Amino acid sequence: AVVSTQSTGTKADLVNNLGTIAKSGTKSFMEALSAGADISMIGQFGVGFYSAYLVADKVEVHSKNNDDEQYIWTSSAGGSFTIHQDEDAEDVPRGTKIILYLREDMTEYLEEKKLKDIIKKHSQFIGYPIKLQVEKEREKEVSDDEAEPEEKEDDEETPKIEDVDEEKEKEKKKKKIKEKYNELEELHK
Questions:
Q1: pTM of the predicted model, to two decimals?
Q2: Buried b (16+ CB within 10 A) or exposed e, 154-175
Q3: Cα–Cα distance, 185 to 173 (Å, whole number)
Q4: Which among 105, 99, 95, 128 is positioned nearest to 9, based on CA atoms?
Q5: CB neighbourhood size of 103 (10 A)
Q6: Paired strand residues for 181
Q7: What string of pLDDT tens digits covers the 189 residues of the chain?
């Protein structure tokens, strides 16, 4: 998903700007592709948003403008689309989220390296920061009993009595584990 708090659209904006294929060069581009043109010519047609259909079967645009409710524009290309009010919307004051449902043969676009390469190549004229949520790993020091889950006894009804020696508790060995976490990494300032 691509999320922006800067660009927003009312329901009318979604209909007028996303719902009209004639406003983009998509129709001309698709005709040129059918006639045997090379896909690398996409930049000559002003396709922009509609280039998403090169990798996605379906596109959803969730948009909330200060002057309107939050709406979802959905299309599977082919010239038709639906718009409905987002009843399950998170309480977002304004912004747009675009979700691409990738085609099965386009999963390479889920790879972090591929996304970083594309952003680096095509973001030189973008005037705002671009961040990518990435999975990272860090070492964390924990005591042995934290690192391994406790095993449950089969006979839970039998009470256990243990002597706890505070000195021994302090002496428990520490163990380093690798912990995965997600972080927004700024790729373009």
A1: 0.60
A2: eeeeeeeeeeeeeeeeeeeeee
A3: 34
A4: 95
A5: 14
A6: 136
A7: 566 555 667 777 777 766 554 455 555 666 777 777 665 554 444 456 777 888 899 988 888 888 888 888 888 877 788 888 888 777 667 788 888 999 999 999 999 999 999 888 887 777 778 888 888 888 888 876 665 555 555 555 666 666 666 655 555 677 888 888 888 888 877
Q: Which residues contact 81 (CB under 8 A, 6 or more apart)?
A: 18, 19, 73, 74, 75
- N-terminal to C-terminal alpha carbon distance within the chain: 19
Task: Determine the Cα–Cα distance for residues 65 and 146; give it in Å rounded to an integer.
Answer: 47
